[in-house]
Amino acid sequence: MEKRNLYLHTTPVEEAKERYYRAVKECISIRTEEIPVDRSLGRVTAEAVYARLCSPLFNASAMDGIAVEAKKTRGASEEHPLVLRRGEDFQVVDTGDPIREPYDAVIMAEDLLEIDEDTVQIMAAVAPWNHIRPIGEDIVAGEMLLPGHHRIRPVDIGVLLGGGILQVRVHASPSVGIIPTGTEMIPPGQEPEDGQIIDSNSGMFAALVQQYGGEPDRFPIIHDDYEKIRETVKEAVSRDDLVIVNAGSSAGTEDYTVHVLRELGEVLIHGVAIKPGKPVILAIVDHKPVIGLPGYPVSAYIDFETFVKPVIELFTGSSLKARPLEQAVISKRLVSSLKHKEYVRVKVGEVNGRLVASPLARGAAAATSLVKADGVCIIDQNLEGYEAGEQVQVELWRPKDEIRHTIVSVGSHDLIMDFLADLLPDLFPGVHLSSTHVGSMAGLMALKRGEAHIAPTHLLDEETGVYNIAYLKRIFPDREMALIKGVSRIQGLMVKKGNPKGIRGVEDLPGCRYANRQRGAGTRVLLDHLLKQAGIRPEQIEGYELEAATHMAAAALVKDGGVDAAMGIYAAAKAMDLSFIEVGEEEYDFAIERKNLELPFIQDFIQALQSEQFKSRVKEAGGYGTENAGKIILI
After folding, report:
1. CATH class of domain segment(s) 60-133
2. Which of 52, 335, 517, 576 could pair covalently with 385 via S-S, beta carbons 3.0-4.6 A apart?
3. What's the pTM?
4. H-state helical runs in 163-292
């Protein structure tokens, strides 16, 4: 039986960080190097830097004009102007020219009345050192220009060069070995076959290493072979300052990383109480830090930020600015385990003067949640989570000013939300759209709690056959509401190319494998309505409980995920090259409180809906109508 890496104990995050950082600090030697000042941007000084020269190097004119002896200007006034002669009383100077004896003041050209080429008239006396920059006014030779442990900025480079410094000693950039492992892994650019996974983590790690001041050293993918992993780790340790081994850190039978590191060195920590990212390995091999990161992208990223980044900072001598922490209202209940410190990716926006955080997918493999996230809500290990509406602490990944100009949308999914998110900053620089897809009903409830500016919705009222209006009247009886009209769109059954099952409508779904949408989604409401009309019970459909969060996710399940059909929009079926059985047209609109219609970025949103650019994108996607886009219906 293969040996597994079972977790008998997980170390709290702060304890793991402190123990490992202390061990790394004791065993490594920090290198410095001297580099040209003009190539030092972003590097960290290893020692204080002192000026070699004064700036300016001489007494210099601060203005264009004439250099004079101040004592010779005494008595000059508008009533008694004084005439000065070139060579005898003054010398013409430009800004930056040296001022030499006997001259000790400068009169600006604007304050002179030129009589002829060699004669001027002044109407005011000047004091000694008037408009003169004395030697060393800015920099004095021998004074400290930059302290040690200072990250060099563009302005610092100017001061260093002005002080006569051409070379500066900085902390050497650490070389970071990146070893991807896994028999199933293939490099980017190679077309994946069934069961193969593209190695995307190595590229992310290399970029993070560069961002934090290191030099990435990427190794080719190593298959799950103990000896090959062992030899590659030995090679990396011999040539790099820090080594990352990606994947193979968990409890699988072919997860060899921890065994290799125990053979080659000392494993200080295996398993940390962090979610995602528990199976991290913190080791020392030949006095070099070696960190085993899990294969799931989100776990790998969280562990890199938590454990790898501080080690890189130790080498570079810097402490990068911590991301800001802000208080926000959480829009959805979050349940967490007391066993872990959990990092939940969130979308963040400002609604009615307060920050609102909407949780994204929490899976360790949900790499796109990192791209979409505006920050993370950190749930400490001693908490079981938060209820919707509670105040939480959020670490922001985007500037707060940018978040203030973000339209917060919570509700139904449609491809047009991606079109609008791409289009808005182009049409209206600084304006952004943040979309969280939870379904129409959940979106309206978020709007009611004041956690969104708009709620995309397409809820059919069975009695009237009208979309959305009845729901707004029922859910918001005491509020003045409005609908911003969006698009009409064709809904139907998405089936495999060529419709091999011969599905004609919902009446053919029993006996097929189906992918549904989440509870409260307008598409699910429509399906239930059609099933009811056809006399079909939900339990007759295999997969009725399988929920996809978006139309594209449902289409992907039909394309390659083993299901035969899913309800969705025509544009999603077209994008995934699926066959489509139309069941009807519906209205996809945006619910909003009337008071928010006048918000500047909502006006921008309405203009974007009415723009030719938007209509062109929608027409290209197919299955939409835009004749009413941007119209307002007061309710």
Report:
1. mainly beta
2. 335
3. 0.79
4. 201-211, 226-239, 257-264
